[in-house]
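Consider the tokenized backbone below.
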């Protein structure tokens, strides 16, 4: 069979994604594949088989029955399940493929339970607990974070989101219009701006891993850590904006219709399911499209790094001119 990997004149390069990552469309296709929620339903045996295919291929061990299509399918499941730097299996709720189903349910609560104190506290606590798991799971490289720092990040983000939501609720008290419905978005935007930098603050203090083209660690950069964390924070806020802004606008329009107003049962029971479905539709597209805003793995000329990092790299035998880093998700 001509589709067998062993029959290819040029072997597929799985050290890089299947699609060109220098273009937005290529990154979007890659993330549509790796954030596919259906990968969550793969069995442990399937995941292990894909891991073996990928790791063996990297070592030059290629089955004579392996097709090119099977190789890329294995790589897609591997990317969705294992951390790109450490190679560790990621906790299933922390994978980007869990963003759509997990945030769909949470967003339905955030957008429906924003009027009462218990509703705000519960929904934002659940949301920040989920975000903390996602942020830690998708941290850059092999960075280690202490339990104390994790707990402080979690408390600050949860407290910030609750304070913003409750404070804004007070400003628009008794207002059941669009302004009140947009409060959850403002609260989670603030929480993301707190949670992500704090959760990854050790990268700022210790520096982000820099590697050469052979994946060898050559140094650490605080400058790249700050840039990467800023990009991830922007991506997460952009990811939430369409469904957390458009969903309230649509729901606000629905509540003004005669059909809705003349049916008390709809007013009582429909908000959470309607907004959950709308959020799910939005998340299916915004998760991969916003993950693709910036390259996950980027390269930078050594001359553009901090002076001390340049000096450290220059002392290496055959120092690289360009280094690579993983900004995380």
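A designed sequence for it:
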């Amino acid at each position: 069979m001509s589709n067998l990997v062993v029959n290819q004149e040029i072997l597929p390069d799985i050290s890089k994604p299947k699609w060109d990552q220098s273009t937005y469309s290529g990154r979007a296709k890659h993330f549509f594949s790796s954030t596919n929620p259906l990968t969550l339903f793969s069995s442990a045996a399937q995941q292990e088989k894909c891991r073996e295919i990928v790791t063996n291929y990297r070592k030059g061990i290629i089955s004579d029955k392996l097709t090119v299509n099977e190789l890329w399918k294995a790589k897609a499941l591997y990317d969705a399940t294992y951390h790109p730097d450490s190679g560790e299996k990621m906790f299933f709720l922390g994978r980007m493929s869990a963003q759509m189903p997990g945030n769909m349910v949470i967003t339905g609560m955030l957008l429906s339970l924003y009027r009462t104190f218990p509703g705000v506290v519960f929904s934002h606590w659940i949301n920040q607990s989920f975000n903390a798991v996602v942020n830690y799971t998708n941290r850059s490289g092999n960075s280690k974070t202490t339990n104390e720092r994790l707990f402080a990040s979690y408390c600050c983000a949860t407290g910030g989101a609750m304070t913003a939501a409750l404070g804004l609720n007070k400003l628009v008290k008794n207002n059941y219009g669009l302004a009140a419905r947009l409060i959850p978005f403002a609260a989670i935007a603030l929480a993301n701006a707190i949670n992500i930098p704090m959760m990854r603050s050790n990268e700022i203090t210790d520096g982000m891993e820099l590697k050469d083209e052979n994946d060898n660690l050559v140094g650490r950069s605080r400058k790249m850590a700050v840039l990467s964390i800023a990009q991830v924070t922007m991506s997460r806020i952009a990811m939430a904006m369409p469904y957390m802004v458009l969903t309230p606008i649509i729901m606000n329009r629905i509540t003004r219709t005669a059909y809705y107003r003349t049916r008390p049962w709809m007013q009582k029971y429909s908000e959470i399911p309607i907004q959950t479905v709308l959020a799910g539709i939005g998340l299916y597209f915004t998760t991969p499209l916003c993950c693709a805003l910036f390259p996950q793995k980027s390269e930078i000329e050594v001359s553009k790094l901090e002076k001390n990092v340049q000096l450290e790299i220059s002392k290496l035998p055959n120092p690289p001119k360009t280094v690579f880093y993983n900004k995380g998700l």
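Strands lie at 208-211, 217-221, 297-301, 322-326.
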